[in-house]
Amino acid sequence: MNKKILYFLIVIVLLLAMAGYSAVTGSVSVSFKELIMDLLDGGNEKAAAIIDFRFPRIIVAMFAGAALSVAGVLFQAVMRNPLADAGVIGISAGASFFSLFGMLFLPGLYISGPFFAFIGGSVACLLVYWLSWKSGLNPLRIILTGIAVSAMFTGLREAMLMICSYFNVMVGASNASNLLMKTWNDVEVLTIYGLIGIILACISSSWCNVLSLQDKKAKNLGMNVSAARISISAIAVLLAAVATAVAGVIVFVGLLVPHIARQLIGSDHRILIPFSALAGALLILTADTLGRTLISPLEIPASTIMAVIGGPFLIFLLRKSDRVHGI
Amino acid sequence: MEFDSINFSYNKYSQLLKENTGRIPKGKISTIIGPNGCGKSTLLSLLSRSNQAESGQIIMNGKDIFAYKPKEFAKKVAMVYQQNEGPADLTVEQLISFGRLPYKKAFKNKSNEDEEAVDWAISLTNLDDKRTHKLEQLSGGERQRVWIAMSLAQKSEMLFLDEPTTFLDIYYQIELLELVRDLNMQHHLTIVMVLHDINQALRYSDQLIVMKAGEIVAAGAPAEIVTEDMIKDIYGVDVAMQKHIQTGLYLVPLGI
Q1: Where in chain B is the domain with CATH 3.40.50.300?
Q2: What integer pLDDT is reported at residue B107 of this predicted model?
Q3: Residue B90 to residues A62, A195, A325, B98: CA-CA distances in angstroms?
Q4: Which pLDDT does position A325 carry in this prediction?
């Protein structure tokens, strides 16, 4: 148990350190002292720019990472599949397509982005369930169906972007898969829905634990398995959708973080979920900070970095997956 | 528990269970036997509400089993499967505590009663020294005892076991069946199990339910219903039936 507390402390310290480092480095750089001074009484122009432009980005990166990681844990629990990730199984692609759709046709609605993302994520999730359910969920079939669903929505989204550019409709930077130009509005949307999702996920953690037994045993223990599966999926879709609506599609976070978290602190969801949230925040913040400092002033999007790390990791997981869930 | 003319099929092409009628006497060990695919596990899954019969009725304590709320039913009937899955890194104690789920109230921690039930289940299954071990560190026989302990922690009146000995060697098979008999004799659990080994079924059951092709062909005390002719008829195997001084009836296969 002490070891687990230690891991929590390490991740929290690293997260704070990375947030601090990220705040003071980049194209505009100030010292820590200047930043703190400005936070207290203002007046420093450089520091003010950082607060306006870099802080939202840092917060968005952390919450997107946390939301996607927790969504990954939840999908893995309900699908009984260590490979389920919102990006891999097409939830993010569905959310991304629908949120673009919402932005184009109902731009006036402040909430339209996340709302449509949630609808899109749900549609993708239903498709994956419906197409891969055959008296139970076969892990490999979920992944294959997910890839197909993901490809379909990515294609639709690209087609729509193409049509937009043909008609000279500006879609705007907010729809790209990176963390450029994040505003306090984005922060508000992501933190409110992200926090709601993460809290709901923590509440549902004991259900997730029971779902790691077989369905029939969970049922025999008096659990309403279908209801639990639907509600946990909905929470996961909410988290993945809101992260996608604000930060774009970032794949593999929900795969990498829960896997490492399980190795470190075990598969009890009551601690796995909060730990994954922290570790996911750390991972995406690190990826984004690296992305904008490595070859500054050019930027590599965090999603690109994640794809480069995540691809090989997925192959590694696939190769050992027969051993992951069998007893 | 009584069941009356229940029918069931997984698809519309073949009728798996046909008009099954029978009863499970309280406080006894009933064993369902029959050849592969005769529907014995399916019958057990219907009695435990894992599947729902298409027609017919299953009555427990004077009430249709589907009239119970899920948690109420979980306090009456616990089930152990042939193969079970769980997270490899959970400890024996954590896994067994899952059996307390039917008693859990939202936002409440473990009660004394929960702890007592878990301790009771652990000591009955002889897992005291394995309490803090992880599932992955246990042998096959120990794992099966963990699943039984989880079901015991449910503190149910009835315990169902679906081919619980299939993947165990003979030592663990006997150990498990002795445990089942103990639970029945000392703790008055009503046991319903599916077994493949006819000799084990003969030795450990008060009542046999013999099935063939989805129908119950005989039910009753082993000594009253099992004959050489019946085994030939059900399994197509010629057997010699003998009586051993210590263990009672047993069968020796002669040929097919």
Answers
A1: 1-76+156-172+185-256
A2: 66
A3: 30, 28, 13, 11
A4: 45
The rounded distance, in Å, linking the Cα atoms of A155 and A301 is: 21
Cis peptide before B222 (omega within 30 of 0): no
Mean pLDDT of all residues in chain A?
A: 84
Token pair of B176 as six digits: 């498990």
What pLDDT shows up at residue A236?
95
The reply to whether residue B94 touches residue A268, judged by beta carbons under 8 angstroms, is yes
What domains does chain A contain, in order, with CATH numbers? 81-173+186-249 (1.10.3470.10), 256-321 (no CATH)
Which residues in chain A touch residue B87, judged by CB atoms under 8 angstroms apart?
212, 266-268
pTM for the complete prediction? 0.86
Could you please state the CATH topology (level 3) that the domain comprising B1-76+156-172+185-256 is classified under: Rossmann fold (3.40.50)
* Residues listed for chain A: 327
Instruction: Tell me what pLDDT residue B223 has.
Output: 87
Chain B within 8 Å of A222 (Cβ-Cβ)?
Answer: yes
| Model pLDDT, residue A315 | 79
Which chain B residues contact residue A214 at CB under 8 A? 81, 84-85
3-state class (DSSP) for residue B52: coil
What pLDDT score was predicted for residue A31? Answer: 76
pLDDT at B53: 86
pLDDT of residue A301: 85
Q: Does B177 touch chain A (CB under 8 A)?
A: no
The ipTM assigned to this model is 0.84
Question: Does B9 contact A at CB distance below 8 Å?
Answer: no
Low-confidence ranges of chain A (pLDDT < 50): 173-175, 324-327
- Mapped onto helix, strand or coil, the DSSP state of residue A170 is coil
Q: What does the alpha-carbon distance between residue A54 and residue A62 come to, in Å, rounded to a whole number? A: 12
Chain B: residue whose CA lies nearest to A268: B90
Question: Does B99 contact A at CB distance below 8 Å?
Answer: yes
* Largest CA-CA distance found in chain B, in angstroms, rounded: 61
pLDDT of residue A169: 64
Q: Which amino acid is at A296?
A: S
Q: In this predicted model, what pLDDT tens digit does every residue of B154-163 receive, in sequence order?
A: 999 999 999 9
Residues with Cβ within 8 Å of residue A66, at least 6 apart in sequence: A194, A198, A276, A277, A278, A280, A281
Q: Where are the alpha helices (DSSP H) in chain A?
A: 2-24, 32-41, 45-49, 55-79, 91-105, 112-132, 139-166, 184-203, 205-211, 215-220, 225-247, 253-265, 269-293, 302-324
DSSP symbol at B91:
B
Interface of B with A in 78-97 (CB under 8 A): 78-79, 81, 84-90, 94
Nearest to B86 among A213, A216, A220 (CB): A213
Q: What residues in chain B have per-residue pLDDT under 50? A: none
